Amino acid sequence: MNFICDSSTLISLAETGTLDALAFLKQNAGARFFVPPAVIFESIQRPEEITAFAFSAFKIEKALDQGTLERLPSKRAPAKTKDILRHSNNVFSVNRQPLKIIQTGEAEALAAYEEMQAKAILVDEKTTRLFIEDPALLQQSLEQEYRGNVKRNDDALNSLKKLLNGMNCIRSTEILAIAFEKGYFEGFKKNEEKAFHAALYAVRKAGCSITTHELLEYQELRKPEAGHKPAAPSAAGAARFAKP
Amino acid sequence: MAILQDALCRLFKAVQKGDAEEIKQVSADAARDALVHDDAEIVEVSLVAYSIYKMGQKPYIRHSKEWAAFLQDLQEELLECSEDGDAPRTVHRLMERIHQLSQRFGRFAQSTVEKARLKAAAQMYAHGASLAKAVQLSGAPLSEAAAYIGGTKIAEKYETMSIPTRMERTRRLFV
User: Does A172 touch chain B (CB under 8 A)?
Assistant: First the structure.
């Protein structure tokens, strides 16, 4: 059960003292978390040079040393990384300038996905997630920000969609929610649920892209009792996101 | 290059007029343009403009001799730039002057430059950049930029599925 980590999720978990949720899921669910070289540079090597912001970097490095996180042995699929960068950075343009909105770390994480037969990419920042889950929403937001002055390159978008086809994204909030269901917060005893919900707010403050509405929906999440399956999503909830 | 020159000219006019709101807007627009043109020199205009805006709000800085000298230098630099057109050199010199001022005025001014980087990163993130891209262009530390962005409302627009649906999908991944 392989997962690829982006620096945004590692930072959210490290900043909030919940990076060990990954160790918990490794132990209790057999999950393995892989980190591409550019993500190691972004989340460890570069921040370690700035003392004031280095503590999270040292925590992530410790997780690597302890085997909670695993280095991808070398640059995986460099051709695919280049393709993802080329296409994602040519999908949208403003005043005829292609918007270069994705960086090497994110592209490497996406490129490693197929080769590592990953189940999901862990990503807290919104741009990479939107390319996978809803490029139309990304375009809509760009049109608002640039007052309609955005052009879409359908060839680049279709090529990117092929490269990203079938990928799943999970954020630090979903990592904490799964860990909660499996008992990660049990040590808080009577405060178990409250601690879980507080941790969700903490990762948002640390940069996880989650809406207030989503946080309120998480308030409804209860730890399933042994042998009980959690309730399936309601049709009304799914209909809110139905595309016309 | 023309974008950098235009941004500097706009800053020059705003400083001449003493228009603080326009100086702040130059900073925001320069961060956006830096992303559009993938140009770190335009980011420096954003940092300079924001630093001028923030430092100019503090009476003990605004009424100092150093600030008056800085504004004089700034106007000369910007005027020279509009004549000889070496915008990259001008923006580098202005950044150096901002750093010198920071050292003179201590912690507040130093944190102003760092805050300017965070503002620029958030502006680029709001305009479509990924977190790593915004950090690379702005020079802001990753964890600080993430936390700064986490304190804004930028995330509110990006909900793609309900939490029950998302959790059902996530549970399937961990089986």
Answer: no
CATH number at residue A70: 3.40.50.1010
Concatenating the DSSP letter of every residue in A186-205 gives: GGGGGGHHHHHHHHHHHHHH
Give SS3 for B94: helix
Across A106-123, b (16+ Cβ under 10 Å) vs e yields: bbbbbbbbbebebbbbbb
Residues A203, A13 contacting (CB under 8 angstroms): yes
Q: Are A149 and A94 in contact (CB under 8 A)?
A: yes
Residue B130: which of A125, A145, A213 has the nearest Cβ?
Answer: A125
* Cβ partners under 8 Å of residue B120, min gap 6: B27, B30, B31, B34, B43, B46, B47, B50, B134, B137, B138, B140
Structural domain tally of chain A?
1
Under the banding of pLDDT at 50, 70 and 90, the label for residue B75 is confident
Distance CA A192, CA B28 (A): 43
Structural domain harbouring A123: 1-244
Which of B118, B143, B157 to probe by mutation at the A interface, max A CB count within 10 Å? B143
Residues of B in contact with A57 (CB under 8 A): 143
Nearest-by-Cβ selection for B143 from A53, A119, A120: A53
Residues A120-167: pLDDT tens digits? 999 999 999 999 999 999 999 999 999 878 999 999 999 999 999 999
User: Which residues, including other chains, have CB under 8 Å from residue A101's CB and lie 6 or more apart?
Assistant: A88, A89, A92, A127, B35, B128, B129, B130, B133
- Reported ipTM: 0.90
- Which residue in this structure is represented by tokens 């950098």? B4
Distance CA A130, CA A161 (A): 11
Which of A102, A178, A204 is facing B150, going by the closest CB pair? A204
| Beta-carbon separation of A137 and B160 below 8 A | yes
- Which residues from B are below 8 Å from A137, CB to CB? 157-158, 160
Residue B106 has phi, psi (to 5 degrees) of 80, -155
Predicted pLDDT of residue B89: 86
Q: Residue type at B56?
A: G
The answer to whether B144 faces chain A, any CB pair under 8 Å, is yes
Cβ–Cβ under 8 Å, residues B103 and B111: no
